[in-house]
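Hi W., the NDP complex you wanted:
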Amino acid sequence: MSYVDEVYDLVVAKNPAQPEFHQAVKEVLESLRVVIEANEEKYRKDALLERIVTPERQLLFRVPWVDDKGQVQVNNGFRVQFNSAIGPYKGGLRLHPSVNLGIIKFLGFEQIFKNSLTGLPIGGGKGGSDFDPKGKSDREVMAFCQSFITELYKYIGADTDVPAGDIGTGAREIGYMYGQYKRLTGLYEGVLTGKGLSYGGSLARTEATGYGLLYLTAEMLKCNGKDIKDKTIVISGAGNVAIYAIQKAWQLGGKPVTCSDSTGWVYDPEGIDVALLKEIKEVKRGRLTEYVQARPGAQYHEAGSSKVWSVKCDIALPCATQNELDLEDARALVANGCFAVAEGANMPTTMEATEYFQANGVLFCPGKAANAGGVATSALEMSQNSERLSWTFEEVDARLQGIMVNIFHNLDEAAKKFGCEGNYVAGANIAGFLKVAEAMTAQGVV
Ligand code: NDP
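Structure:
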């Protein structure tokens, strides 16, 4: 049996009931096969793959807090410090009822390669909790965040592990966590990114993942003789990534026509009104039904009956959550003439759907490259905190654009070098892996 297959079987056996983690490992190892097999003896002797699929440290902890009725609630807290070969652990905190160890491990594993691809010195980690901030008062969210950090603060720090936002963790949550970290340690340091501008946050961090997704998509199209201008774009999600993807899509001359949340989705033939969407989601924390009340020309569909992917488009950008675009959706998109897909969310496309896109000549860029703008800008926030300086919006945005363009060229070249031109999934995994593997080898058995 080949080394790749052996390690995949080992992951499944040693990590039962973690299907998302298995899926992420399978996708990465499959595309690394050509690289691993060229060096199989050495990698096997060093147990490099066994080490890379095993987190350096996994923290599981109790998060007790008191709700507004005086009732004690208990949630599970997680932080997986996956790989620090090229820098301090870096990755977001997800707050969503679906969070479990397998999901955090899949996200942490992906993060290793994503962070490597940015070209910046950051290792891979991820964390979160099954706490649901939705429907909670500000005081309840604060109580949860303070309790979460009261346990986690022992294991994080500006040079060891720097968490950030993710689903359910926005500026409010980061603020409460930062305050509690400072109170417990007495340190005013860049331990979290995604901070508010008044206390060490970076301009353009809020916009970074969505903007970065569009910068990379534009470069991918350009290198394939295409353009975003006047193209119809279907986007899922209505959170941080989706909102700023929609905004940048307009700025680059495209027409984003959809958005979605967990209860339904909107099709606006005139194009999504970003100001209205921001008002509903960022200010009121409301539902998308309010969008169609304000824009009668738009249509609202309940979740479950259909998905945004049924809308005819040129470009599709999944920006909500994992496995939200399956084979049936991929068939519908291809049949409707969609020629490019780039993942704003982490692993939103199932493996079967990805393969279908690739087999049908659709340009497909995986999330670990396409949504790396968020973590890249987080690393820029870390640099500004270390320097005790704040860069302008234009400076951060220009660096972000440069990083995204570079990421695309790195993965494009890696794909060409290893005989799989145009396969950007393989290119991203190979380019991300080689740097981490070299650093791990140089640092010995640790
Ligand atoms: P947000 O919480 O801001 O928004 C998530 C959006 O997706 C919301 O519209 C939410 O709807 C919807 N959603 C979440 N879970 C589900 C679900 N199970 N089914 C259907 N819809 C769902 O998160 P972000 O925009 O920050 O993150 C979106 C994705 O992008 C995630 O995969 C995240 O890991 C990834 N990502 C985010 C980065 C960032 O900088 N923010 C960086 C890199 C990747 P509702 O409000 O109804 O729950």
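Residues 98, 165-168, 209, 237-242, 261-263, 319-321, 344-346, 371, 374 surround NDP (CB under 6 Å).

W.
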